[in-house]
Structures are given as structure tokens and as C-alpha cells.
Specification:
428 residues, alpha/beta, Rossmann fold, 3 domains, six-stranded mixed sheet, five-stranded mixed sheet
């Protein structure tokens, strides 16, 4: 496929300033950029969507310039909220940039191993543009090329200004001037001709191109392209779970957590997500959807989607581990047999996801075991559950209130407990 055709097929194209950009970037050897606020030390799923749009440019030999908005991150853009963002300081910003850069490098390395393609990538920090820039330089070289009328017409600014109970600082107001100048710096000093971003940034991005052209006497060859703000079939933003962002960092949410998010994708969204979040060929995706539709209750499409995404974000071992935990909790009937094949890392991950218990002694009584694994709130409740024949350990019913367990009773170091349909594990 040609670049534009592929972006459209994958649902990654919404607007552009000029069709010519696709001919230019189809040939490769060009640079483009996307900016990221270093307000956290990880990207999340929305960033991953814009990142996959960038990957489709990179796989044609173009270089992705990841612009870290240090300077603007120290200020904060004017949002729809009634209050200004909290300022970040240099140590925070430095830590966040390093973490995000490592994250992107790892994802690109994973994609390289999956596709055998090379992906060119650079990091530029916009703090470098401004650290020696005086306020007089700023007014003379940036401020004169954009009008207050244009800045006031931005929706988030208008909303803040029209609400008598809110306000906007000059600091926030100047944010768009800095970002407009970013494009000029990248164009003049890094050879960047294209910015990509979300469709909610279209107004800003077009304003910056106008500002840049004015400053270069309308000679700048620059382009803007946006991707749609993806919604799921129910109309909710796809990248959030219960209102919270899903991070691309194991320390913030586990690979299993991300895996489960995609496993729970509605059937109507599987094809859309496979196209947007993977580099599988369109005909491969068509085959997956065809097989999925034969028995949708088996969730074949969701499993393929979740597996590929986790391989891309983290790698194969994490995908395999997330699949084992999912099988244990939701699919596998012989859970005891499954635990035999688990590595120590798999077991630790399962312990984390199921709030399992660590046994620090050589033996443990059944009542204590039930309380430690939260299957019972007290010894009294534990006794009642055993008397009601509601408790199993290693798939065997427990009837003895004085029963004790040792390492010799464990399978792969694990005791498998069951109360009704609820499973827990304890590890010696």
C-alpha cells in the first residue's frame, strides 16, 4: 500500500494541510515530529496510537523526531480545566524524559525484532531552544508573527476567559507561542517538514504553520497531519480504564493489566484495533477476523490483538506470561496442571495479580491459610466455610479443621486454594 492508503486503511488519518505530504514521505529520507509533554515518566495508550501512526512513516525510511516539550512542560498548556497545571521542575522533567526515551527505544526494538525493519528515531528537547533565549529575543522573533485575535479564538482559551469563576495566566497564554516556535526550530535546524498529532490539536498545529510561513516569507515547505481521537463502539475513549489512563510502564500497570484491557475489547472494535495497533498486513487481519467470526465466544481476535500489543510494548515473555495468568483466571479448567508449567517469574506475576499470600514458615494451618489469602475474614468464617464443604486445596476438598500444609504438599511451590469459583494461590 501507498502511505496515504495504508494510514486510511488503519484508521490513522483524519486531516492534513496538503496532499503533497504523502508523496514526499512515501519516498523516505525525510523527518517528521510529534511532541510529548514530559508530565509523567511514562506514555499511555493514547500516545501509543499516535506513535503507531509515526511507525507507519518510519517503516518507509523516514526519521521520527520525538520532541520533548521541556520548556512548555514547565509552563503547562491551557486546558479545559478551570485551574492552571502545576509547574514541573528540571529534575522531574529530566527523569521523565529519560524514562520516556527508554520506553520508546524499547518499543522500536521490539518492532524491529517482530518485523525485521529498521526504525530511525531521534530525541530533541525544546528546552535547548529557549535556555539562552532572552525575553527580548522572544518578543521580536516570535511574538510579532501571531495576533492576540488568533490566540483568543482557541476554544479552551475562550472557555476559560468567558467563565467568571476561572482565569488564565499569561504563562499559559504564551504556551502556544512556544510550540509554534518549536516547529520553526525543527524546520530550520533539523530539517523537519511535518508534524503529526491528535485531531484535537488541529487548530494549534495549523496556527503554527501560518506563523512559521509568515516568518519565512511564506517559503517554508511544511505540513500538518492529524489522527482521529479513537473511540470504542460504546462511544468511550478507548485508552482509559474506569477513567484512568493505561500506562506503557510495567511499574504503573502490569503487562497482564494491559493484556486484559485488549482481551475485553468488544467484537465490533477488534478489527479497528488490530489495524491501528499492529503492523500485521491488512490481509492477515482480515483472516484473523474471519476466523474470529466463526466462533466469537472463543475471543480469538481479542487474543491475537492482546498478544501482539503486549509483544510490541513489552516483549514475548510478557505476552506469554499475561496469557498464562488469563488462562489461569478465566479459561483453563485444569489450573493445577497449568501451575506446573509456570516459571518463578510467572508465579510472582500471578501472586501479584491475584493478591496471593507468601508463606514464611515450613508449615501452615488451613485456617491461617484461608485468612492470609483473603478467602476468609476470620478463623471463625474459615471454619464455617470448611464445614460447608466450600474449600478446596490443590483441587481436593478440605474437611479437617486442623489440617496443616507443608512444602511437600505444594505443586511447583504453590498451594492452589478455591472457594466456590474463586481461586487464590499461596507460595512457600
Amino acid at each position: 500500500m501507498k502511505l496515504r492508503e495504508e494510514l486510511e486503511a488503519r484508521g490513522l488519518l483524519y486531516q492534513m494541510t496538503n496532499e503533497k505530504l504523502f508523496d514526499i514521505y512515501e519516498q523516505g529520507w525525510e523527518k517528521f515530529y510529534c511532541g510529548y509533554d514530559p508530565t509523567a515518566d511514562s506514555l499511555h495508550l493514547w500516545h501509543f496510537l499516535t506513535f503507531m501512526a509515526a511507525v507507519n512513516f518510519m517503516k518507509r525510511g523516514n526519521t521520527f523526531v520525538m520532541l520533548i516539550w521541556w520548556a512548555t512542560g514547565m509552563i503547562g498548556d491551557p486546558t479545559w480545566k478551570s485551574e492552571a497545571r502545576a509547574f514541573l521542575w528540571l529534575d522531574q522533567l529530566r527523569h521523565n524524559q529519560e524514562a520516556i526515551t527508554i520506553q520508546v527505544q524499547q518499543i522500536l526494538e521490539n518492532l524491529k525484532k517482530l518485523t525485521w525493519k529498521d526504525f530511525k528515531f531521534e530525541v530533541v528537547n525544546n528546552y535547548d531552544f529557549y535556555k539562552d533565549f532572552s525575553v527580548f529575543d522572544f518578543y521580536r522573533t516570535v511574538g510579532k508573527y501571531i495576533t492576540i485575535n488568533t490566540m483568543m479564538s482557541k476554544e479552551s482559551v475562550k472557555k476559560r476567559m468567558s467563565n467568571p469563576e476561572s482565569w488564565i495566566t499569561y504563562t499559559e497564554f504564551s504556551y502556544m507561542l512556544l510550540q509554534g516556535n518549536d516547529f520553526l526550530e525543527l524546520y530550520e535546524n533539523h530539517g523537519v517538514k511535518l508534524q503529526i498529532g491528535g485531531s484535537d490539536q488541529w487548530w494549534n498545529m495549523v496556527t503554527w504553520t501560518e506563523m512559521l510561513r509568515k516568518k519565512t516569507d511564506w517559503e517554508a515547505e511544511i505540513y500538518v497531519m492529524t489522527i482521529p481521537l479513537m473511540m470504542d463502539s460504546s462511544g468511550k475513549k478507548f485508552w482509559k480504564s474506569e477513567g484512568n489512563a493505561i500506562w506503557l510502564d510495567k511499574r504503573k500497570n502490569s503487562p497482564y493489566f494491559v493484556y486484559q484491557y485488549f482481551i475485553n475489547t468488544a467484537d465490533a472494535d477488534v478489527e479497528k484495533y488490530l489495524k491501528a495497533f499492529t503492523l500485521l498486513e491488512i490481509n492477515e487481519i482480515d483472516e484473523i477476523i474471519k476466523k474470529h467470526n466463526e466462533h466469537p465466544e472463543e475471543r480469538y481476535g481479542q487474543k491475537q490483538l492482546a498478544n501482539y500489543v503486549i509483544q510490541t510494548l513489552f516483549w514475548k515473555e510478557d505476552a506469554e506470561q499475561a496469557e498464562k495468568i488469563s488462562e489461569f483466571l478465566f479459561w483453563k479448567s485444569d489450573k493445577l496442571e497449568l501451575t506446573k508449567s509456570m516459571s518463578e517469574q510467572d508465579i510472582q506475576a500471578l501472586m501479584h495479580e491475584t493478591w496471593g499470600a507468601k508463606i514464611d514458615s515450613d508449615e501452615i494451618r488451613i485456617l491461617e491459610l484461608l485468612v492470609n489469602t483473603w478467602l476468609a475474614e476470620s478463623n471463625g468464617e474459615a471454619k464455617k466455610l470448611i464445614q460447608q464443604n466450600a474449600i478446596s486445596v490443590n483441587e481436593e476438598k478440605v474437611t479437617d479443621l486442623a489440617k496443616t500444609y507443608t512444602k511437600q504438599d505444594a505443586t511447583n511451590g504453590i498451594l492452589l486454594l478455591k472457594r466456590g469459583k474463586k481461586y487464590k494461590i499461596a507460595q512457600f
